[in-house]
Write a structure and sequence with these properties.
456 residues, mainly alpha, two-stranded antiparallel ribbon
Amino acid sequence: MQKLNHLYWRAGFGLGPAEWEQKKDWPISRAVNELFSQARQARPLKKEDDLASINPRMMSDEQKKEFRDLQRKKLVGENAAWVSRMSSAEESALLERMSLFWHGHFACRTTSGQLAVQQLNAIRRHALGNFRDLVLAIAKDPSMIRYLNNQQNRKQSPNENFARELMELFTIGRGHYTEQDVKEAARAFTGWSSNLRGAYVFRTFQHDNGQKTFMGKSGNFDGTDIIDMLLEKKQTAHFITSKIYRYFVNARPDERVVNDLAEYFYSTNYDIGRLMRRIFESDWFYKPENIGHKVKSPVEYTAGLMRLMDLQFDDHTSILFVQRALGQTLFNPPNVAGWPGGKTWIDNATLMMRLSIAAYVLNAAAFSFQPKEQAEERIRRINRLKANINLEAIKKATDKIPDHQLFDYYQSYLLLADTKATPNLFRRMMAGVKDRDELIRRGLGFFTSLPEFQMC
């Protein structure tokens, strides 16, 4: 059961109580097949807004302000919708998880709801497909073009921002290209731009058609050629595979395994789906050193909590507040390198915030701690969160479990890391609770307050 739980936390966002009861005895092969089958059947997001009739140049200042406000509200709505998909058993957990990974890899900040959903659709289309197609889609994505200033990349004055990040962060990695390669790649991407309506356009007269020399090859290269030449290098396969390993397996890569995976990834012409399947089907993925040692990111934590408690936020601003308070706001990474992850997710303030949110929605405990000064306002605002939970699924799942066995149930279901909590401590904390429903609720409060619950 632990191996299955590990799979669903790394390839998704955990399992709700009903899902756990249904799948906890499945063989790994069946679970992996179901994850990929759901991903293949997932529908694209709703069609992006048709803004063809909107020309910002024709707007008054007041109309522009209203348009920007509308896009910001839409952005919050798309953020909330994405988290809801992550937390839903009806959606593809693997597709959403891969999309979240690529969202962090191709980190891009946007203030437009239309551009955000446009980029997310591009990521979802290729999240388990071909890496070349994904990189090319991102290179033509209006959000990325604007974020890294490629609309200012013209033959008369090349802008190197996108070309540099393409190599340093998105493909081959630092130390495997020269400054001259950056300059020549920037020339190749001149003219790759977007219009005021949020669509990719190639501006022919801004493109540099001169000969360029990139990584030892010369020719009249454009951006597509640059991407192809980067992917010809095995170092790109190694760089991407290593990052995938650190995210999905262990922050400390096993270089032998990474090298084998990189060779496989390269041999499949960068087939992401086949790489991920190989990872999830490998025995080493389920070794003890790879289980329960990864800190859940704020979004992973929130989506998992929503699955566990059938937690629903009454408005979009509540979900946005939780993300901001915990340190990970979708569509708003700290910089182009994305979120550093790992132990950086946790400090005294954010840990207390996590425990406060779980306690608040369960009404299982009063707040008795003194948070950091800078977190005091955020803690106070928890009391204004609008959220509801439904514990019927976990009540049904535990209906035939005697009170004295609840500790074992919660431990096997909710924890992947070893815990110092003991059945005796649990019984002492539950002493005096006679009502079964209250016992279930208090039990959840006890386990979600453990440090080990923050790990997967």
